[in-house]
Design a protein that fits this description.
By secondary structure, the chain is mainly β. It contains no helices and 11 strands. The chain has strands spanning 3-7, 11-12, 18-25, 34-39, 46-51, 58-60, 68-73, 78-83, 92-98, 113-114, 118-122. The strands form 2 sheets. Strands 2, 4, 5, 6, 9, 10 and 11 form a 7-stranded mixed β-sheet that branches. A 4-stranded antiparallel β-sheet has the order 1-3-8-7, with no helix packed on it. The relative contact order is 0.31.
Length: 124
């Protein structure tokens, strides 16, 4: 059974940084396309970033481009999301997701497996 677990969420001041990690059981997440999404109160889940396993190509939402970095840590078998220069509007529950045939990484319905999410709150 595939399970994803996110970690690293916290309360941080505007301008601060956090690193979220996504680990998996049942699969080796390094061999799958992985996406990060977020869901803020009263808003729909939205794409944040993704990494393709074969090429390592990364994709980002315009709202986080230049501030967030998605990467694989092959020693820890995680997919991490480094978030810098955080803004209050980044406050959300962050989810990682993966699937066996993810092609359009920005589309949530492409993903088969989701974690429970980790809360990120950006506030002074």
């Amino acid at each position: 059974q595939v399970q994803l677990v996110e970690s690293g969420g916290d309360l941080v001041s505007p301008g601060g940084s956090l690193t979220l990690s996504c680990t998996a059981t049942g699969i080796t997440v390094q061999y799958y396309n992985v996406g990060w999404f977020r869901e803020a109160p009263g808003r729909e889940r939205e794409f944040v970033a993704a990494i393709r396993w074969y090429s390592g190509t990364t994709e980002y939402a315009d709202s986080v481009k230049g501030r967030f970095t998605i990467s694989r840590d092959n020693s820890k078998l995680t997919v991490d999301l480094q978030m810098n220069t955080l803004k209050p509007e980044d406050t959300a529950i962050y989810f990682c997701a993966t699937g066996r045939n993810v092609d359009s990484t920005m589309i949530s319905s492409e993903y088969d497996y989701w974690g429970q999410g980790t809360q990120v709150t950006v506030s002074s």
